[in-house]
Amino acid sequence: MRAAVVNTPESTPVCADFPDPEQRPGQAPLRLVGAGLHHVVRGLASGRHYGSGQAYPLVPGIDAVARTGDGRLVYTGFARSPWGTMAEWLVTPFEVDLPAGADPLAVAAGMNPALAGWMPLITRRREAGELGTVLVLGATGMSGGLAVRAALSLGAKQVIAAGRDHEALERLRGLGAVTVPLAAPDAAAPGAGATGTGAAALAAAVAEAPPALVLDFVWGSVAEAAFAALGQAGTNGDNPAIGYVQIGSLAGNDAALPAALLRSRRIRISGSGAGSVSKAEMIAELPEIIARFGDGTFDAPYTAYPLSRVGEAWAHQGHTRAVVVPD
Questions:
Q1: Residue 245 is inside which H or E element, if any?
Q2: Whether pLDDT at 233 is above 70
Q3: What is the pLDDT of residues 121-136, one digit of tens each?
Q4: Distances in whole angstroms, Cα of residue 129 to Cα of each of 117, 154, 265
Q5: Do the beta carbons of residue 224 and residue 195 sit within 8 Å?
Q6: Dihedral, CA atoms, 290, 250, 302, 9, nearest 10 degrees?
Q7: What number does CATH give the domain 2-97+299-325?
Q8: Neighbours of 315 (CB within 10 A)
Q9: Spatial CA neighbour of 113 closest among 143, 76, 137
Q10: What GO molecular function annotation could you give as one example from this UniProt entry (predicted)?
């Protein structure tokens, strides 16, 4: 079959022949409709992601929209290595039907980023019975923007959206979020730490509406600014307990955590991602997420690339997500 093939950790994928996926009981082959090129896909293929470790050559891709033998459109993923989802044929362990009206390529582009924020939100609501105020750091990226929409749709008391893209912040404001502009990390003066990230605006927003849940898609200096803002409440025991969930690290892999914050606030810091959330838990939530793509609550802008141009897809940047489709 034709597939995107990564031959070494440093190489860009090429379109080439690759063996058909191994047949498995109860898993009929599916024909590719579109596979999203997410940040995690690049990380896994290059060996930089903590979940890497595959042998080469391999087919990249963790999820896709595909067509079944009887013509249904389904969302699927978790193909067995070295087969990924950027190939003409897929063999995968689950299928979730797409609702009428859902754009299959928007689903391919958006399901993985939507799932990133959805899991900690739904976990928090089940544990606490409500979401309270939610702070989203990195809200202007695709994952963060979908997390803002998810929090609003799940009944958050208020959503504070912090991010760098002013146009995206205006769109989130239009949905009902309180928005906080953040500066690019390199805009801070050398040695300034969190002060160059928009810390003052973030501190003001947090003081006005203390969050019960923080979804952090960026980490690094932005997390340090958030820690400083959360710590300004002092020892007031009336402030809500905080669940701080680390999801992404686009602003840096490390962040300094003040000891005083841990002592002065009821805060629990955890992570959410492959390994800390089981596949079964994620699959169980997929129908609810897909339904929101069907009714227009969620959307994901995309740029489609045929398999023969997978190298261009790999280099794609901008506000849309690359989606690999058959030629």
A1: strand 242-246
A2: no
A3: 999 999 999 999 999 9
A4: 17, 11, 21
A5: no
A6: -100
A7: 3.90.180.10
A8: 9
A9: 143
A10: oxidoreductase activity
Q: Are 155 and 146 in contact (CB under 8 A)?
A: no
Identity (one letter) of the amino acid at 320? T
Burial 153-169 (b: 16+ CB within 10 A, else e): bbebebbbbbbbbeebb
Domain ranges of the chain: 2-97+299-325, 114-271
281-299 pLDDT per residue, tens: 999 999 999 999 999 999 9
pLDDT at 193 over 50: no
Q: What is the mean pLDDT of residues 192-212?
A: 80
pLDDT category of residue 179 using cuts at 50, 70 and 90: very high
Assigned token pair, 11? 């190489």
Q: In this predicted model, what pLDDT tens digit does every residue of 58-110 receive, in sequence order? A: 999 999 999 999 999 999 999 999 999 999 999 999 999 999 989 999 999 99
93, 99 contact by CB (below 8 A):
no
Spatial distance between the Cα atoms of 201 and 293, rounded to a whole number of angstroms? 32
pLDDT for residue 271: 93
User: What mean pLDDT is predicted for residues 16-23?
Assistant: 95
* pLDDT score of 175 more than 60: yes
- The CATH class, in words, for 114-271 is alpha beta
**Contact yes or no for 164/184 (Cβ under 8 A):** yes
Please, where are the H alpha helices in the chain?
A: 39-46, 104-128, 142-153, 166-175, 199-208, 220-231, 259-264, 279-295, 310-314
